[in-house]
Amino acid sequence: MTNSKPSTMLGIDLGTSSIVVHHIADTRTEKNSIVPLNFQGKETLPSYVMIQEGGSVACGAAVKDQIANNPSRVIFGAKRLIGHKYHDRPVQELFENVGFEIQPDEDDNPLIVVDGKKYMPEEISSFLLEHVKETYKSATGKEATDCVITVPANFNDAQRNATKTAARIANLNVRKFLSEPTAAAIAYYNIEPKDKIHLLVFDFGAGTLDVSIVYIDGQVFNVKAVAGNSNLGGADIDKIIADYCIEQFKKKQSDFNPKDPNNKKNMALLLKTAEETKIALSSMDNSQITVPNFYNGEDLSVKLRVSKLNSLIELILDQIPTPIHSALKAASLKPANIDGVLLVGGSSMIPAVKDKLEEIFPEKIKSALNPLKAVSAGAATICQKFMNGQLRDCEDVKDYVRQRTVSPPMFAPGTIAVVDVQPITIGIKTANDRFQKYIISNKPIPQKTQIAFKVKENNTLTIQVYQGESSKCSENIFLRDVTFKNIPKQSTNVLLTIAINNEGMLVVEANDPETGYAQTIDFHYDGKLDDAKVQEIIRRHKAANETGKKKAEEKLTQLYDESKKLKSTNRDLYMQIQHQIDEALDEIDEMEDSGDFKKFFELADQISKKIQSNI
């Protein structure tokens, strides 16, 4: 995180199913200065991307509505792919339930394929971030250059790096990664500023379940522990509902095969309807799930009651206490020590989920927060603090964090410090598959460990880096090999430093004070795009946008030519049409940066039909 103060910053909750963004209306005042960004009348942007013919891109609610008509072009769930390998469980589970194509590359990274063109998950996320930037510019007239992006507490190094790459492609500088539960705690403090309290943040979104315990002490937000399940979210509930509907439908149409490519369109529509039903059942007793002409000319129609939904998701509900008790144990706390429970994420609003939490924490659930907007609002608070020079990190409170002092330091009014913890243990492989742990989970960051290693005869040093909690590397996640080359021949031992910085990013250093050898590697996972590849992707996006603009301009010329036929026969209509064409031209100018010309073509088609009906 650099020390320079940007002029504009966005607080971005880059969610699996939707994006929420808050920005700063006035950096000078805190009250009512953090406002949500509006996306066509709504404060959420569905995380759906459509790759159109020619490669131009559209995003948001209109795209989500196209999922049944264009299942191979509408991309969603990119957050479940990002930072993963193709054969990882989250990728395979998503692959079974989407209409678009996913392929592995030579390094087993997942690629999304549309019209023969291959897109990395980072690119899909970058399209959404570009749309956010364009929306912000249209609303404020300002260019967004910097941001704070929230990530699940259990996001690993690979996933954080991939998210940062997505922002780079969108030309956004990530000043800080903030864990989603921590962001929610900050948002809650803005509403109810209380001191010396333990908050348990239960963040159940579309793709992940995170539990964090945050202790607010003076001006310090101290994350005591995190736990969770990065492969469990609301999307899993959507699939359970869809599977139940298929089970009921097969009682009438026993030969229906949900994996048949011919059924992808209606399966995509069923998943979308299942999500809508899940949301509806948070405030209703029952809901009807209907997909017209689902198979063989027969409609799918299933009535789902809350009681039935609860029985369907019983296995998911049974998993909820595990990360809660893990976090409590790591923080050396009991349920009675928790002063308040914050609900975050759409799935936390499910009544049965709330009931499960009430069993553990009676009468401690706080209702002040909006579960869908709290994370982004907390991120924007960090933006505001950053822009005003009022943000401190662990280094500024290290004596307090390491319990060398009882009380936190006093900062200037309005200043806060955020202390996060490492979510997953990181180490290296030693003999006999042994996992030697160096960066320890649920300990404050930054962390670093130094180890002496012998140099090989070829003047190199290679280590294999893993993450996980098992004592065996084979049961953990392999990150990558790190090789240090050209070590001086006179160096027999090299001091290796493995460190996690304030942003949760891994850095590995090797040095030999006797010979002066030193090399630093900013750690990135194997799927990481280098600078040249990032620039190539940016050029490709720009070329696709230019193609879309060219087609839009050709359509505009066609409209002008068609309208001339009205000039002598219906002057009033001709002038009206000219005004509408000018409005369509404005759409081209407004959408040039994002490459989303869908609204223009819809408007152009309406104008063309009006002309043709009056010639």
UniProtKB/TrEMBL annotation:
Any single GO BP term: protein refolding
Source superkingdom: Eukaryota
Region forming the signal peptide: none
Gene3D superfamilies cross-referenced by the UniProt entry: 3.30.420.40, Actin, Chain A, domain 4, Substrate Binding Domain Of DNAk, Chain A, domain 1
GO molecular function: ATP binding; ATP hydrolysis activity; ATP-dependent protein folding chaperone; heat shock protein binding; protein folding chaperone
Keywords noted in UniProt: ATP-binding, Chaperone, Coiled coil, Nucleotide-binding
Record's keyword annotation contains Hydrolase: no
Gene Ontology annotations for the cellular component aspect, listed alphabetically: cytoplasm
Any coiled-coil regions, as ranges: 549-594
Chain segments annotated as transmembrane: none
Similarity section: Belongs to the heat shock protein 70 family.
Name of this chain's protein: DnaK protein
